[in-house]
TrEMBL record:
Its cofactor is Zn(2+). Residues 29-122 form the Succinylglutamate desuccinylase/Aspartoacylase catalytic domain. The lineage of its organism: Bacteria, Pseudomonadati, Pseudomonadota, Betaproteobacteria, Burkholderiales. Signal peptide: none annotated. Keywords: Hydrolase, Metal-binding, Zinc. It comes from Roseateles koreensis. This is Succinylglutamate desuccinylase/aspartoacylase family protein. InterPro entries: AstE_AspA_cat, N-alpha-Ac-DABA_deacetylase.
């Protein structure tokens, strides 16, 4: 294993942060990229990365890694250092207010222009050409702030990977995944190995999160060139929601790490007898069918249904209690579906999104992700 240090743009004299990446195997085969805690206050991924590192070290020593595996055990040194009144602020950069998992630059036009004259009838060679041009486009993309340099560094490490796993978590939640529709055929293997209860699918969810910045290039180039050149979906990129923010436990993390290793093994990046593909524990549903439950008024929030429950439209999920008037407001599910996530905050502000139910019908339009 080799360790690489990537310096970010210095935000002030005497201050400079760095990103660390761990590199296993070697180029020439397929590549997997795994990063933890891009939202720096979502810590289950860091513990999973700790266990992944131990397992990958052993596999490397045994000569069982073929291709390349890149692990970034802590993907956001900026957010990790942001504290306000002793509370970590790891989701948004405090300078700009921007979400660390949004606004990744799209490279489709630059790559298409640079690569078109080199493309032909050989799909494998087309992938090689497009990845080479993509690496160059990412390296040449402007970065004038520390946050932009973080985005560019993460993209430079991941843009040419066959498999990209971005490890996050929700507040209180089931294991679930987010990915783009063209990625689902391969992502279904990961969903089975990792035990996802639901995978939420979209074709551009809005604001260009990291995972979509990695995978969208391929289906967008397919649409751009049509039948002119064969271009496969050469990257399966997925956001892995490792349950809830408090699920930072060795037992869970070690098993999650082993499940990821088993997925990589099944896909051929680790040698030896392949593991058996597990039975599915969930299914895929449209992200546009994942319905946020919002508080219509402020008050003490208490849930009457548990994460993991299957609910019907109209079922009461929670109460909001006005501590002065004693009025109780019921929060009901708008659809039949899986109650898969809820907030851990127990005082709701008006308009606050406090829970999510995954239905089977696409009902929402526009930007589909939260803030």
């Amino acid at each position: 294993m080799s360790i690489q240090k990537h310096l970010l743009i210095s935000p002030a004299p005497g201050t400079q942060r760095e990103l660390i990446s761990l590199h296993y195997g070697q180029g020439g085969g397929e590549k997997a990229y795994i990063q933890a805690s891009l939202h720096a206050d979502e810590l289950p991924g860091m513990l999973v990365a700790h266990h992944l590192r131990t397992k990958l070290d052993a596999l490397q020593a045994a000569g069982r890694i073929c291709g390349e595996i890149v692990l970034v055990p802590m993907a956001n040194p900026i957010g990790l250092s942001q504290f306000v009144l002793h509370m970590q602020q790891g989701r948004f950069e405090t300078t700009t207010g921007e979400n660390f998992n949004r606004h990744y630059p799209e490279q489709v036009d630059a790559v298409a222009r640079a690569a078109e004259s080199q493309l032909g009838a050989d799909a494998t060679r087309n992938v090689e050409v497009l990845r080479r041009e993509l690496r160059q486009a990412v390296a040449a993309s402007p970065a004038t702030t520390e946050l932009q340099s973080l985005r560019r560094t993460l993209m430079s490490l991941s843009c040419d990977a066959d498999y990209v796993l971005d490890l996050h978590c929700d507040a209180q939640a089931l294991m679930h995944l987010y990915t783009e529709k063209p990625c689902w055929p391969v992502c279904e293997d990961l969903a089975r190995f990792i035990g996802a209860r639901v995978t939420l699918l979209a074709q551009e969810s809005g604001d260009n999160p990291f995972d979509e910045a990695c995978s969208q290039l391929w289906w967008k180039l397919q649409a751009r060139f049509g039948n002119k050149f064969p271009i496969p979906q050469a990257c399966m990129s997925v956001t892995v929601e490792l349950r809830g923010a408090a699920d930072v436990e060795h037992t869970l993390a070690e098993q999650d790490a082993q499940n990821i290793i088993d997925f990589l093994h099944y896909r051929g990046l680790i040698t030896g007898a392949k593991p058996t593909l597990p039975a599915a524990q969930g299914d895929a549903r449209p992200l546009a069918g994942s319905m946020p439950i919002k508080a219509p008024c402020p008050g003490v929030l208490t849930f009457v249904r548990q994460v993991g429950d299957t609910v019907k439209a109209g079922d009461v999920l929670a109460h909001i209690i006005d501590p002065i008037s004693a009025q109780v407001t019921e929060l009901k599910s708008p659809v039949d579906g899986l109650f898969f996530a809820r907030d851990f905050v127990r005082f709701a502000n008006t308009g606050m999104s406090v829970a999510k139910v995954a239905g089977r019908e696409a009902l929402r339009t526009g930007k589909l992700l939260g803030a």
